[in-house]
Amino acid sequence: MASQPLEKTTPTVQSKGARTRERLLDIAYDAIIRKGFSATSIEELVAEAGITKSGFFYHFRDKNDLARQILERFHAENEVFQQTLIARARELSSDPLHAYLVFIKLYAEAMSDMVTNHPGCLVATITFQDQAFDREVTRMNTEGVLAWRKTFLAWLEEIAETYPPRLPTDLVGLADGVFGTTSQALIVSKALGDPNVVARDLLLYRDQIRLTFGG
Question: pTM here?
Answer without folding.
Answer: 0.86
